[in-house]
Amino acid sequence: MRIALIPAFEPDLKLVNTVRELRKTGFEVVIVNDGSGSRYHEVFEEAAAYGAVLSYRKNRGKGAVLKDGLRYIRQRYQPPYIVVTVDADGQHKTADAVRCCQEAEKQPEALILGSRRDDGGQVRVPLRSRFGNALTRKIFQIRTGVSVYDTQTGLRAFSDRLVPPLLNIPGDRYEYEMNMLLVFADQKKPIVEIPVSKIYIDGNETSHFDPVRDSIRIYRCILKVPDVVKFGLSSLIGFLTDYGAYAALVTMAGWTGAPAVFAVTVSNILARILSATINFTINRKYVFRSREKTAVSAFQYAILAAAILAGNTVLLNILVEGAGISRYLAKLVTELTFFTLSWIVQKWIIFRDKPACSVKPEGYLTVCGKGEVE
User: Fold this and answer.
1) Residue 52 dihedral angles phi and psi, to the nearest 5°
2) Which residue has the higher pLDDT, 171 or 23?
3) CB-based burial label for 140 (10 Å; 0-12, 13-18, 19+)
């Protein structure tokens, strides 16, 4: 069985032509109306003659409705089946959708992409599409080591075996499709491209892709820096602040002739307070992007900072007074010792990935047309 899944936002009658052709070719069709509004009711009403139409009141994004469509397919159809995602604006030929499905049937563990290859200039590609595709292609290859010619194609086919993992991929808008490629590339799962026709209707003006906002989402996914790296950079900033303040304060204390224990202890405490404040702010907002209330995470962080400060101070004095190590070298050794402890506690306790509040979807306002369920 072959199922065409079509996310649709404010479509015109090309959607009706697309689903009619797909249905004639033997596809089951599932259309998701992504909050298009009452002005588009007639289009979806006509499309409902050829497939199931799932409608939402509000626009939720391409990634969200693709996953909702996949959930519906899992509930409605029994394996084995092949799903092919098709855009609603008529830019994908039914024959190409069939070819993608045929390849997915041969390779049920692979993600099949309908790749719009260079045709020698026979089809005029809009400048923004040509430039965007080339740039994204190169960055994706650098990031993953995997070469994918058409990273932005919406024509994708896969077997029912891949539906569960696809539902677990994050992203609610256009970045979902890029996340899909990143997950497959990172997990060494096969990505297979087959050449398909290039169709750009009216210079691709019907596309709802925002070249600025959606590009930022996509490149943020590709260029995502691992948390541990960002934590390291944050810690480096905190360390430079801490070490700089410590060195300045302990030097000034030396000018006063203060005892070494007093100078080291006070300087270390004051420097730690300053660096901890900066480090907490960076970690909360940019490293772990915590959704926890500031007061709660600040309290937990304060306890951690106090514990590390106590251990830090004790170890620092042991190294300086007991082992006779230089005050400056001892500071370096101490910071490296507590770096790992701080990462573990912040990652898994203070800023751990807490599940977001369970927000139920709007629910299908209507499930109509062919394939209607009770």
Assistant:
1) -75, 135
2) 23
3) buried
Cα–Cα distance for residue pair 288/350, rounded to 1 Å: 10
The predicted model scores a pTM of: 0.60
Lowest mean pLDDT among 91-100, 225-234, 335-344: 225-234
Q: Which one-letter amino acid corresponds to residue 63?
A: G
2-224 homologous superfamily:
Spore Coat Polysaccharide Biosynthesis Protein SpsA; Chain A (3.90.550.10)
- Amino acid residing at 114: G
Tokens of 206: 């019907």
DSSP 144: H
How is the chain split into domains, by residue range?
2-224, 227-350
* CA 70 to chain CA mean position, Å: 19
pLDDT per position as a tens digit, 271-283: 888 888 888 888 8
CB 55 within 8 A of CB 366: yes
305 burial via Cβ count (<10 Å: 0-12, 13-18, 19+): buried
Q: Is the pLDDT higher at 233 or at 220?
A: 233
Q: How far apart are CA 64 and CA 69, in angstroms?
A: 9
Residues 238, 304: contact at Cβ < 8 Å? no
Residue among 67, 65, 13, 19 nearest 43 (CA): 13
Instruction: Taking each helix axis as running N to C, give the angle between helix 260-282 and helix 227-256, from 0 to 180 degrees, rounded to the nearest 10.
Output: 150
pLDDT exceeds cutoff 70 at 27: yes
- Alpha-carbon dihedral 331, 333, 336, 341, rounded to 10 degrees: -90
